[in-house]
Amino acid sequence: MMSELAIETTGLTRAFGNVLAVDHVNLQVPGGSVYGYLGRNGAGKTTTIQMLMGMLQPDIGSMRVMGFDPLREDVAMKRVVSYVPERVHMPEWMTVGHLMGFGRGVHPNWDAGYAEALRKRLELPAERKLGQLSRGMQGKAALLSALASRPRLLILDDPTMGLDALVRREFMESIVGALSDTGTTVFFSSHILEDVERVADVIGILHEGKLVVQAPLEELKGAVRRVIATFAEPTKVELPGVLQHSDGGRQQVWVVRDYDTGILQRLHDAGALSAEVEHCSLEDIFVAFVRTGKAA
Amino acid sequence: MKALIWKELREIWWLPVGLVGVLGAVTYALRVSAYWTPGIVMIYMLATVLLALYLGADAICADRLRGLEEWHYMWPVSRARWWWLRFGMNLVITLVVGAAATAMLVWLTQHYAPEEMRKITTYTLAGLLPSLVFPFTFAFFASGVTRSAARAFGVGIVIFFACSCLTLFPWYILLITMARQIGPVTPALTPSYLFLLIIVAGLAGASYCAFTTAPVLDVRARVTRTRQAARVSVVPCLAVVVAGLLIAYVLPLRAILTAKPEPQGIAKSELSPDGKQIAFSESEGAGLWLIGADGTGLRRLGKEQAEKIIWLKDSRRLAFGSVAMEETVNPGRWGRVRSHRSTNYTQWWYLDTGAEKPEPTKLFVLPRVEGDSEMLSPQGKYLWLGGEFVDTTTWQRVGKVAAPYYWPSFLTWLTDDSAILVKNNREPEDQAPKRIEVPSGEAKPLGIAGLPKPDVSFFKPWGNWMIQDRSYTVPLPKSQLQVVQRTYPVRTPDGKTVNRPYRYTTNTCQPVYVTRFRRIDGSRQFDVPGWGSFSANMSDSEQYCLLIRSPTEDYELDHDPFRNGELVFGLLDMRTGKIVRTMKVKFPYRDPSDLKWSRDEKQVALYSRETVHFLTLDGEHKVAELPKTDAYVTTEDELLGWSAAGEVIVRRGNRLVAVSPNGQTRTLLEAPTRFDKLEELAKAQEARRKAGKQP
Predict the structure, then answer these.
(1) Each residue of B653-684: pLDDT tens digit?
(2) Taking a C-beta distance cutoff of 8 angstroms, is the pair B103, B596 a contact?
(3) Helices in A36-95 by DSSP H: which ranges?
(4) Quick check: B249 and B200 in contact, CB under 8 A?
(5) A56 closest CB neighbour out of B4, B6, B217
(6) How far is CA B595 from CA B210, B589, B614, in A?
(7) How many helices (H) and strands (E) does chain A have?
(8) Which of A145, B217, B575, B633 could form a disulfide with B116 if both were Cys (CB 3.0 to 4.6 A apart)?
């Protein structure tokens, strides 16, 4: 269900000293979508999220999160927006039960029944101290505290980072399971493309602080194709929208965006003996965009 | 809010509880050593100040150190709310612990400490609690702008103690000083208070950086002037300033309004030689007053503030000294400005108390002198005023001592007023006793018949008598000698080792302490053996001398009021040179601060802190408890002497008390806080006298 924008930024920029961490980013996260925010380590994902949560002030640019200004209306915003940081540290002396009690006292939208149901679904022992939980369980506890208030927007900062494959899969499934049919917008950053591809509706790829692509996943997959052509002898061919090109002499491979059949015609005109067009995985798309560094 | 408070309390409950527990244990352990109350006070004060610093420094930094900042930020609670909650919670805990420490300390001192320590600690602690706000606030602000609790702690300590040093005294004294300022001097006019305001203004600037919205992760944002940042930063700053003003003004004012003001002590008082009148003054500058030794006849003698009072022999005239003031006149913007400041000189006056309207007459200004600086000669002809001789009939200066003798000690007049004897003076190379001729001021060798000059080892101002310590050793009789037999190895020429015996005797001699009493004119002398180190006080008729010494020579043991301190008193008959009576008396302190023989010389009165002891020649010992006083009691309290009615007059804090040898006490005068009220008291007395009633 796509509706008005849950997150909208305009020219969002933030520098740390001489390093431009986020460079004129224009995010548009549709309401009700699952938005995968991709980027390599140090691309600026966490900085963007911290600005969206009002923890960092942008140097330039504006932002609205669920209609709120995160810097001036952070409390009102956080009543409908939940956030799970990259590596959550929680008071170690608290038990899971304490955490739920604390949330009930602090959050006006806290749903105690839902929290208990979530606890059972996530298999969190109520009497166990948070400091004694494994890292995956701690992540689940953070997720519980983020979801129990039934947020309209959930922001997750690389929630599966550092988890093994099994735990990661469980974690992602629990998010999907918890949010199925709730209409909650999810904005999550990750550098594990497999996770994103499984759940995301919309993709944004950040590279060196710049948003190089932002589009619905299916649309992106439809637009970006890999083209393989074989020539009788090494030939130089210019194609439009090339993201990546590997020149193997007689056989050449292109990854192009905005693919259309005119490309095949060009190859035929250039003397290609054969030409194949393949769909790309999200990983291929990500690598192609990151290597070129071109903005979509 | 309840959930937030619950969380904060759960995280730090152990600290205040632990500290209170430790202090409780310290209190319990130290209760028997409460004589060292100043040290104990310091322990409690330092503990509470360090706790305040720690709680402030840890308040914000703890989240950073434990990585909890982001977790806090997950919840819909504003940063300002978190911070104010932390500020309030930690401050409350600081004050609760401070109150607990105060209560323990008060309990300790109330039950175990001498009275003057009780006073000191009570007044000190009055300012301890509010003063904890300052170190806590400093550390809290430092915690907001640094990333390390240790650094914040250090910054808090440095600021706090730097402020304390710069203002020359700790904050609590500042607050107490403010609390005491009743009258024309307002706190706003004191330099210390101005300095406080400067500090608060500086803190306001620092807190502007500390309390910005965004946030802890973003140092730069703290100094960005966003509207929201201003709202959450300026408001706390103003609150801190207002709180500081409240602490500085309202708290003392409340204390002033609700608590009984601390009365001032009587600064100086002297009993007339006939024991019928007491002249006194106090530090508030209300002048010189006179009251009868029976508590009647209160009247003001003059408006001058007497620092020193000397009665003459006739018990009618007196000389008194006040601080000489220097007046300067400077051209000001709106006219001449007169200012007065005290000098290191004493303005001397004399006064006839028997006159219809006593009017002090200004005499002369002399340098203020340390040591035995004022004394009336035995015959009453001269006054020794710190180096100058003044004729008491003409009130003219008739002689002056050379400069090196401005700082004498062990000073005594010869009984015929012909000379004074001094032991020490300012010049360290000239410590030999001297005789200073009156009125020429010429210094001569002692010149006492039969007394070799270097032989004087101890010298006391007893008028006609002096004492000399003569310690020597005597051989023990053979029967008491111990013979020890030992062997020692000797190597013989053929290479063998043999043990040869040898004998020696131990302790062949024993020390003997002999004190020689000698009349200065050489007419009499005798030795008193076996008393070692003692203090002595001779009756005016030279009939008896009371010797006082410690039974153990162990200062710590004898000084401890909780270990049955004792003193040994010996009554020396000066006619026979024999100790006629020895008494061992329980005495809480090693030395009585004052001792006076009664007029009939049948008993002595000894003042010791809160009690007056009476010892008769028959060996009877009685103790009179002095009434409690709210005034600041110091060791300056003194026993003025025996009145004509046979009572002992004691100056104690803001009271003059008459104590009879049977132990009964009577308050002659309780000086109110402001001495101008003495006028009302004097008028009331006069009215009652005219109406034929006794006060």
Answers:
(1) 778 899 999 889 998 888 765 555 677 777 88
(2) no
(3) 45-52, 74-80
(4) no
(5) B217
(6) 63, 14, 10
(7) 10, 14
(8) B633
Q: Are B665 and B624 in contact (CB under 8 A)?
A: yes
pLDDT for B469-526, tens place per residue? 777 777 777 777 777 788 888 887 788 888 888 777 776 777 777 888 888 777 888 8
Q: How many degrees, rounded to 5, is the angle at CA B656 between CA B684 and CA B615?
A: 140
Sequence-distant (6+) residues with CB within 8 A of A234 are A247, A249, A250
A79, A88, A142: residue with CB nearest B76: A79
| Beta carbons within 8 Å of B585's beta carbon, 6+ residues apart | B566, B567, B568, B569, B613, B615, B621
**Which of A53, A57, A91 shows the shortest C-beta gap to B73?**
A53
Q: Is B202 helix (H, G, I), strand (E, B) or coil?
A: helix
**Strand A153-157, strand A185-190: pairing:** parallel
Interface confidence: ipTM more than 0.95? no
Summarised one tens digit per residue, pLDDT across range A182-215 is 778 889 888 778 878 888 889 998 888 888 888 8
How do residues A216-260 score in pLDDT, each as one tens digit? 988 888 888 888 888 888 777 777 777 878 777 778 888 888 777
Which residues lie below 8 Å from residue B282, measured CB to CB, with a gap of 6+? B264, B265, B266, B267, B268, B654, B671, B675
How many whole angstroms separate alpha carbon B556 and alpha carbon B565?
10
Chain A residues 31-70 within an 8 A CB cutoff of chain B: 50, 53-57
Is a pLDDT exceeding 50 seen at residue B165? no
DSSP structure string for B635-651:
TT-EEEEE-TTS-EEEE
Q: Name the percent of chain B lying above pLDDT 70.
A: 62
User: What percentage of chain A reaches a pLDDT higher than 70?
Assistant: 93
Establish if A87 touches chain B: CB-CB under 8 angstroms.
Answer: yes
Give every CB contact of residue B96 below 8 A, 6+ residues apart in sequence.
B16
Chosen from A19, A53, A57 to mutate, greatest number of chain B CBs within 10 A? A57
* Phi, psi dihedral angles at B476 (to 5 degrees): -80, 150
Sheet holding B509-519, edge to edge: B465-475, B509-519, B525-529
Cross-chain residue pair A146–B213, CB shorter than 8 Å = no
- Both tokens of B398, joined, read 């008739």
Predicted pLDDT at B633: 47
CB atoms within 10 A of CB B619: 12
CA separation for the pair B595, A175 (Å, rounded): 91
Helix (H), strand (E) at residue B119:
helix B115-131
> Does residue B280 register a pLDDT over 70?
yes
pTM, 2 dp: 0.50
- The crossing angle, in degrees rounded to 10, of helices B14-30 and B79-112 is 10
pLDDT tens figures, B291-347: 999 888 888 888 887 888 999 999 999 999 888 777 666 655 555 555 566 778 888
* Alpha carbon distance B65, B310 (integer Å): 70
- The structure tokens listed for A94 are 């608290």
Distance of alpha carbon A287 from alpha carbon A246, whole angstroms: 13
Looking at the partner chain, which of B3, B66, B226 has a beta carbon nearest the beta carbon of A71? B226
- Is B71 within 8 Å of A88 when comparing Cβ atoms? yes
**What is the CB-side half-sphere exposure of residue B676 using CA atoms within 13 A?**
1
Per-residue burial over B399-436, b if 16 or more Cβ lie within 10 Å, else e, is bebeeebbbbebbbbbeebebbbbbbbeeeeeeebbbb
In sequence order, what are the residues at sequence separation of 6 or more whose Cβ sits closer than 8 angstroms to the Cβ of residue B273? B311, B312, B313, B315
